[in-house]
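re: that chain from earlier
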Amino acid sequence: MLLPSGKLLGMKRLVDFVHNMATFAAVFSLFVIAVVSLLGLIFSAISLYLAYLHRKYSHLPGPKRDSFFLGNIPHILRERERGKIIHEIMHDMHRIYGPVVLMWAYHRPFIFVSDPELVRKCLITLNLPKNLAVYDHLGYPFGQRMAGRGVLNEVDHEVWQRRRALLNPAFHRRYLMNLMPAFNGSCDLFLAKLDKMADGKTVVDMAQEFARVTLDVIGKVL
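^ sequence. v structure.
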Protein backbone atom coordinates (compact mmCIF):
# COMPACT_ATOMS: atom_id res chain seq x y z
CA MET A 1 0.00 0.00 0.00
CA LEU A 2 1.47 3.32 -0.99
CA LEU A 3 1.12 6.26 1.39
CA PRO A 4 0.81 9.83 0.17
CA SER A 5 4.06 11.76 0.40
CA GLY A 6 2.57 14.16 3.00
CA LYS A 7 1.65 11.37 5.39
CA LEU A 8 5.04 9.69 4.88
CA LEU A 9 6.79 12.96 5.74
CA GLY A 10 4.63 13.36 8.85
CA MET A 11 5.43 9.87 10.04
CA LYS A 12 9.13 10.49 9.47
CA ARG A 13 8.94 13.66 11.56
CA LEU A 14 7.09 11.75 14.28
CA VAL A 15 9.74 9.02 14.30
CA ASP A 16 12.50 11.64 14.44
CA PHE A 17 10.73 13.43 17.30
CA VAL A 18 10.35 10.20 19.28
CA HIS A 19 13.98 9.35 18.60
CA ASN A 20 15.13 12.79 19.75
CA MET A 21 13.02 12.58 22.90
CA ALA A 22 14.43 9.16 23.69
CA THR A 23 17.98 10.49 23.19
CA PHE A 24 17.23 13.50 25.42
CA ALA A 25 15.74 11.26 28.11
CA ALA A 26 18.81 9.02 28.04
CA VAL A 27 21.20 11.99 28.25
CA PHE A 28 19.12 13.60 31.01
CA SER A 29 19.09 10.32 32.95
CA LEU A 30 22.86 10.06 32.66
CA PHE A 31 23.17 13.69 33.80
CA VAL A 32 20.94 13.06 36.83
CA ILE A 33 22.89 9.93 37.70
CA ALA A 34 26.18 11.84 37.41
CA VAL A 35 24.91 14.70 39.62
CA VAL A 36 23.55 12.30 42.24
CA SER A 37 26.79 10.31 42.18
CA LEU A 38 28.83 13.50 42.55
CA LEU A 39 26.69 14.67 45.48
CA GLY A 40 26.97 11.25 47.07
CA LEU A 41 30.74 11.33 46.63
CA ILE A 42 30.95 14.82 48.18
CA PHE A 43 28.70 13.77 51.07
CA SER A 44 30.82 10.67 51.67
CA ALA A 45 34.04 12.70 51.55
CA ILE A 46 32.67 15.23 54.06
CA SER A 47 31.47 12.44 56.35
CA LEU A 48 34.84 10.70 56.23
CA TYR A 49 36.66 13.98 56.88
CA LEU A 50 34.44 14.73 59.89
CA ALA A 51 34.93 11.21 61.21
CA TYR A 52 38.70 11.70 60.86
CA LEU A 53 38.58 15.02 62.76
CA HIS A 54 36.39 13.55 65.51
CA ARG A 55 38.82 10.66 65.93
CA LYS A 56 41.84 13.00 65.86
CA TYR A 57 40.55 15.08 68.79
CA SER A 58 38.76 12.29 70.65
CA HIS A 59 41.38 12.30 73.44
CA LEU A 60 40.34 15.79 74.59
CA PRO A 61 37.58 16.15 77.21
CA GLY A 62 34.35 17.90 76.34
CA PRO A 63 30.58 17.50 76.03
CA LYS A 64 29.15 14.93 73.68
CA ARG A 65 28.27 16.25 70.24
CA ASP A 66 24.57 16.90 69.69
CA SER A 67 24.90 16.16 65.98
CA PHE A 68 27.48 14.52 63.74
CA PHE A 69 27.44 17.47 61.35
CA LEU A 70 26.40 20.35 63.65
CA GLY A 71 28.62 19.42 66.58
CA ASN A 72 27.73 21.30 69.78
CA ILE A 73 25.87 24.12 68.01
CA PRO A 74 22.40 22.89 69.19
CA HIS A 75 23.58 22.88 72.83
CA ILE A 76 25.04 26.38 72.52
CA LEU A 77 21.81 27.68 70.94
CA ARG A 78 19.73 26.16 73.73
CA GLU A 79 21.91 27.83 76.35
CA ARG A 80 21.75 31.13 74.48
CA GLU A 81 17.95 30.95 74.56
CA ARG A 82 18.19 30.68 78.35
CA GLY A 83 20.05 33.98 78.43
CA LYS A 84 23.64 32.74 78.78
CA ILE A 85 26.53 34.17 76.81
CA ILE A 86 29.35 32.04 75.44
CA HIS A 87 31.63 32.84 78.39
CA GLU A 88 29.03 31.56 80.88
CA ILE A 89 28.53 28.44 78.77
CA MET A 90 32.27 27.76 78.74
CA HIS A 91 32.50 28.44 82.50
CA ASP A 92 29.92 25.68 83.03
CA MET A 93 31.85 23.36 80.73
CA HIS A 94 35.12 23.99 82.61
CA ARG A 95 33.46 23.15 85.92
CA ILE A 96 32.33 19.81 84.48
CA TYR A 97 35.23 18.76 82.26
CA GLY A 98 38.24 20.57 83.70
CA PRO A 99 40.67 23.22 82.41
CA VAL A 100 40.68 21.92 78.81
CA VAL A 101 37.37 21.64 76.96
CA LEU A 102 36.75 20.67 73.34
CA MET A 103 33.67 22.07 71.57
CA TRP A 104 32.59 21.49 67.96
CA ALA A 105 31.02 24.06 65.65
CA TYR A 106 30.14 22.12 62.49
CA HIS A 107 33.54 20.85 61.23
CA ARG A 108 35.66 23.18 63.35
CA PRO A 109 37.05 22.10 66.75
CA PHE A 110 37.47 24.79 69.41
CA ILE A 111 39.67 24.06 72.41
CA PHE A 112 39.14 26.31 75.44
CA VAL A 113 41.91 26.46 78.06
CA SER A 114 41.28 28.07 81.46
CA ASP A 115 44.41 27.09 83.42
CA PRO A 116 47.06 29.88 83.42
CA GLU A 117 49.96 27.44 83.32
CA LEU A 118 48.50 25.61 80.35
CA VAL A 119 47.87 28.91 78.57
CA ARG A 120 51.49 29.87 79.20
CA LYS A 121 52.66 26.53 77.85
CA CYS A 122 50.54 26.90 74.69
CA LEU A 123 51.46 30.51 73.93
CA ILE A 124 55.06 30.72 75.16
CA THR A 125 56.67 27.31 75.70
CA LEU A 126 55.18 25.53 72.68
CA ASN A 127 54.51 28.76 70.75
CA LEU A 128 51.46 27.25 69.08
CA PRO A 129 50.04 29.12 66.06
CA LYS A 130 47.28 31.63 66.80
CA ASN A 131 43.93 31.63 65.04
CA LEU A 132 43.86 34.58 62.64
CA ALA A 133 40.05 34.90 62.63
CA VAL A 134 39.86 35.13 66.44
CA TYR A 135 42.64 37.71 66.72
CA ASP A 136 41.21 39.77 63.85
CA HIS A 137 37.93 39.87 65.73
CA LEU A 138 39.77 41.05 68.84
CA GLY A 139 41.57 43.74 66.89
CA TYR A 140 38.63 45.04 64.86
CA PRO A 141 35.24 43.91 66.27
CA PHE A 142 32.31 44.97 64.06
CA GLY A 143 34.82 46.58 61.71
CA GLN A 144 35.94 49.13 64.30
CA ARG A 145 39.42 49.29 65.82
CA MET A 146 39.75 48.04 69.40
CA ALA A 147 43.12 46.32 70.01
CA GLY A 148 44.27 46.98 66.47
CA ARG A 149 47.51 45.34 65.41
CA GLY A 150 49.73 45.25 68.50
CA VAL A 151 51.73 42.78 70.55
CA LEU A 152 48.50 41.57 72.15
CA ASN A 153 47.00 40.12 69.00
CA GLU A 154 49.86 39.84 66.51
CA VAL A 155 49.75 36.36 64.95
CA ASP A 156 53.07 36.56 63.07
CA HIS A 157 55.64 35.40 65.62
CA GLU A 158 58.59 37.13 63.95
CA VAL A 159 56.77 40.48 63.90
CA TRP A 160 55.61 39.95 67.48
CA GLN A 161 59.15 39.13 68.60
CA ARG A 162 60.56 42.34 67.11
CA ARG A 163 57.85 44.48 68.69
CA ARG A 164 58.15 42.72 72.03
CA ALA A 165 61.92 43.26 72.05
CA LEU A 166 61.30 47.02 71.80
CA LEU A 167 59.21 46.84 74.99
CA ASN A 168 61.62 44.73 77.02
CA PRO A 169 63.64 47.67 78.44
CA ALA A 170 60.43 49.25 79.75
CA PHE A 171 59.69 46.13 81.80
CA HIS A 172 63.16 45.67 83.24
CA ARG A 173 63.13 45.36 87.04
CA ARG A 174 65.55 48.24 87.55
CA TYR A 175 63.41 50.55 85.43
CA LEU A 176 60.20 49.50 87.17
CA MET A 177 61.72 50.09 90.59
CA ASN A 178 62.35 53.73 89.63
CA LEU A 179 58.67 54.07 88.76
CA MET A 180 57.35 52.86 92.11
CA PRO A 181 56.77 56.41 93.45
CA ALA A 182 54.52 57.15 90.45
CA PHE A 183 52.64 53.86 90.94
CA ASN A 184 52.15 54.52 94.65
CA GLY A 185 51.02 58.10 93.99
CA SER A 186 48.32 56.96 91.56
CA CYS A 187 47.17 54.28 94.00
CA ASP A 188 46.94 56.83 96.84
CA LEU A 189 44.77 59.09 94.70
CA PHE A 190 42.63 56.10 93.73
CA LEU A 191 42.10 55.04 97.36
CA ALA A 192 41.31 58.61 98.40
CA LYS A 193 38.69 58.86 95.67
CA LEU A 194 37.11 55.54 96.69
CA ASP A 195 37.08 56.67 100.32
CA LYS A 196 34.93 59.67 99.38
CA MET A 197 32.50 57.51 97.41
CA ALA A 198 32.22 54.79 100.09
CA ASP A 199 29.08 56.21 101.70
CA GLY A 200 26.91 53.13 101.24
CA LYS A 201 24.73 54.91 98.66
CA THR A 202 26.92 55.79 95.70
CA VAL A 203 27.09 53.19 92.94
CA VAL A 204 30.66 52.86 91.65
CA ASP A 205 31.64 51.27 88.34
CA MET A 206 34.93 49.66 89.38
CA ALA A 207 35.85 48.74 85.81
CA GLN A 208 35.78 52.43 84.89
CA GLU A 209 37.72 53.40 87.99
CA PHE A 210 40.46 50.84 87.36
CA ALA A 211 40.64 52.01 83.75
CA ARG A 212 41.19 55.59 84.96
CA VAL A 213 43.94 54.48 87.36
CA THR A 214 45.62 52.55 84.56
CA LEU A 215 45.53 55.53 82.22
CA ASP A 216 46.82 57.76 85.03
CA VAL A 217 49.81 55.48 85.59
CA ILE A 218 50.51 55.16 81.87
CA GLY A 219 50.32 58.92 81.43
CA LYS A 220 52.82 59.51 84.24
CA VAL A 221 55.43 56.88 83.42
CA LEU A 222 55.26 56.76 79.63
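The CA atoms of residues 101 and 112 lie 5 Å apart.
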